[in-house]
Amino acid sequence: MNTVNLPYDPYNVIITGVGGQGNVMASRVLGNMLSRRGLQVTIGETFGASQRGGSVMSHLRISSGSTWSPQIPRGRCHLIISLEPTETMRVLSNYGNPNVKVLCNTREVHAIGVIAGDQKYPPLDDIKSWVAELSESCWFLAATDKAMELGNPILGNIMMIGAAAGIGVLPLARDDFEAVISEAMSADKLKINLTAYDFGSEMIGAAN
Question: How far apart are CA 208 and CA 190, in angstroms?
Fold first, then answer.
């Protein structure tokens, strides 16, 4: 297999969200897609109170030939794929740098403190301004809203994978996605996942 040239080696990706958004599945799918390209992928995960909407974060370290520790050093992330806006802020503050790229799903998931009235959820426009200031480039996508049109909001995680393919920083191919999903899911679920993936890629095209 041909050697894959990465923008950085290792290329560090964080997929973040809250419990119930399909964060772990997204990291597995993305990792398996890249493995099919002959890349070495190490995945490390951290879980908050995931069953109660707590933070869930997956670290992916991608290399053309080396195996790296699963924990990305602070300030060394290259791409953040976030399924929830305030989780974007949390990860960016710890792992961001002037060269980081950010993909952010705009659907809010309110923490218990916000629901109880003890905390305030920041306005989305403020989050967008803050993320834009602290990243090289960023895209905000209504992935969950689009997924609900397909009848299942969790498909937002697949749309974010399609979006990651759309920005072109990693060798993410639709054929590899189809192969990975075919191994993990029944045939009747393949079509809707391919549709979600394509929607994510198209959303990037519309945003550029």
Answer: 28
Q: Which strands, in side-by-side order, build the sheet including 101-105?
A: 40-47, 55-63, 11-18, 79-82, 101-105, 137-141
pTM equals 0.92
d(CA 193, CA 177) in angstroms, rounded, equals: 9
Please name which of 121, 166, 162 lies closest in space to residue 143, comparing C-alpha atoms. Answer: 162
Residue 195 to residues 129, 156, 199, Cα–Cα distance (Å): 31, 11, 6
CATH 3.40.920.10 fits 11-207, yes or no: yes
Q: What is the pLDDT of residues 78-130, one digit of tens each?
A: 999 999 999 999 999 999 999 999 999 999 886 666 676 777 889 999 999 99
Three-state DSSP class for residue 27: helix
Dmax (CA) for the chain in angstroms is: 55
Angstrom CA distances, 49 to 20, 46, 84, 134, 139, stand at 11, 10, 15, 28, 27
CA angle, residues 19, 172, 155, in degrees to nearest 5? 35
**105-127 burial, b if ≥16 CB within 10 A, otherwise e?**
bbbebebeeeeeeeeeeeeeeeb
CA-based nearest residue to 185, from 158, 166, 148: 158
